[in-house]
Design a protein that fits this description.
Number of strands: 18
Structural class: alpha+beta
Distance between the termini: 30 Å
Largest sheet: 7 strands, mixed
Strand content: 15-25%
Length: 455
């Protein structure tokens, strides 16, 4: 296994098994639908925004005082974070859950940290800080990256790992190639402006790392709110916020961010969650083509968890994994894979050959039909987006329980149920809605499509 995959692997595994923010979000959704809605007891939008303003203002004013007495903004922010421990993360976490229903990325919570006009670029701040000496040394190996972070072509966001983050690299790990190191550094930079208030209500962030394997857009980071506070890619905790430069903003993080592996590799790395799916992909011969990035540009895998397979009737599961049922299992799994279109919870990439591609998912309700590898069968996907609270449903039934498993060649969306293709009755499409499923019914749905599947 490559060393670049080792560092985040344990955290990635726990994130898929127990997604704190997603669990809370689902509870909130169910409460909203009940007769005595728990949402009625939540504060109003104005109260939530005020609470967030107070949280960041408290941090901002204290950091501002420290910065005025200090020679360096990053040093002051890190020193303050160390002195206050985890209190800021607790406040952000407590307000973040309640805020997620109403806040959106256009909410202006103001700038914090030092309110004095900055006089250094984000590169100059990093290069002159005592806490980011290792990051600065790595950046200095790439003159083009130095020029980028000194430039004014955009307001950049840098998720800056502090020196202690580099100490987490295993002692005997081989030094990455220069090409790999450059990709890692670019993965810490966003060409868009994300102060803390915007990060708080964002699920994914575009980076400066451009790869052909995700489609027309750049590789992305995920942001999460959980027991560790505000994190990036589930495992790297944000420990200092809103360090402003003349050309962007810096957030300090406690772990290096590593570009992700392919979706198929992620599935194989997490047997506790996906062993049944991996077995099915291997049995049907789909694992190798799924892992071959030369045959697709991005993609979305709606991955049923082990629990989702357990919800199928025992006879249906036994049939699918029997020698006779292999061709049906092949067709069924193809129905979970979308090639050349990458659907994140708040962004959408399509291959260049797909018309009308747009990388922004609007707030409110968004619907899209995604063609799958099962010919003539698409997935009807609905995204309900209200600030940080995002619900994704497939075929108006299966919920995406864990969103945005960032992959090198697309994204994994973990679904609560195995997706069963619809059947046509009197020229009408009838989706499966969780009713009792028999082997005969499954064969009826898949039989017309079997001949079109190449085994």
């Amino acid at each position: 296994m490559k060393i670049t995959y080792i560092l985040p692997l344990a955290a990635l595994s726990s994130a898929f098994v127990l997604p704190d923010e997603q669990v809370i979000s689902q509870i909130a959704i169910e409460s909203h639908r009940s007769a005595d809605s728990a949402f009625d007891k939540l504060p109003s939008k104005a109260q939530v925004v005020k609470e967030l303003e107070n949280t960041f203002d408290t941090v901002g004013k204290t950091v501002e005082k420290t910065v005025k007495c200090s020679k360096h903004a990053i040093d002051a922010a890190i020193d303050y974070a160390a002195e206050t421990g985890n209190e800021v993360s607790k406040q952000v976490q407590q307000t973040g859950f309640a805020a997620s229903s109403w806040l959106d990325s256009n909410t202006n919570l103001g700038h914090h940290g030092s309110h004095d006009k900055p006089n250094q670029t984000v590169y100059e701040l990093i290069a002159s800080s005592k806490y980011t000496t290792k990051l600065a040394a790595a950046i200095n190996e790439f003159p083009d990256l130095v020029t980028l972070l000194n430039g004014t072509l955009a307001d950049y966001t840098v998720f800056a790992p502090v020196d202690s983050a580099f100490e987490k690299i295993p002692e005997h790990a081989p030094k990455p190639s220069k090409e790999t190191l450059e990709k890692i550094l670019l993965y810490h930079v966003s060409p868009e402006y994300y102060p803390a208030a915007k990060v708080l209500v964002t699920h994914t962030v575009p980076t400066a790392l451009t790869v052909d394997t995700v489609g027309i857009g750049p590789q992305r980071l995920s942001t999460n709110i959980g027991l560790k506070g505000l994190t990036v890619n589930y495992y790297s905790r944000i420990i200092a916020i809103n360090i402003f430069g003349t050309n962007g903003v810096i957030h300090g993080i406690d772990s290096l961010l590593v570009p992700p592996p392919n979706a198929a590799d992620i599935i194989s790395f997490l047997p506790a969650e996906f062993s049944t799916l991996e077995l099915g992909l291997a049995k049907t011969g789909l694992f190798a083509p799924l892992n071959d990035t030369s045959n697709h540009y991005g993609g979305t895998v709606f991955a049923p968890s082990n629990f989702a397979f357990q919800k199928l009737p025992t006879k249906v599961t036994a049939f699918l994994f029997s020698s006779y049922g292999t061709k049906y299992l092949n067709a069924l799994l193809r129905y979970h894979i979308v090639a050349n279109q990458t659907l994140y919870s708040d962004a959408y990439y399509a291959a260049e050959s797909v018309d009308d591609a747009d990388d922004k998912i609007p707030k409110g309700i968004f619907h899209i039909d995604l063609p799958t590898l099962l010919e003539e069968r698409s997935l009807a996907v609905d995204v309900a987006r209200y600030g940080r609270l995002i619900e994704i449903k497939v075929n108006a039934f299966a919920r995406v329980d864990i969103q945005d498993g960032i992959a090198a060649d697309g994204v994994i969306q973990v679904v609560s149920d195995v997706l069963i293709p619809p059947k046509r009755i009197d020229r009408m499409v009838q989706h499966w809605q969780g009713e009792e499923l028999t082997v005969e019914d499954l064969k009826e749905r898949l039989e017309p499509l079997i001949e079109k599947v190449e085994l």
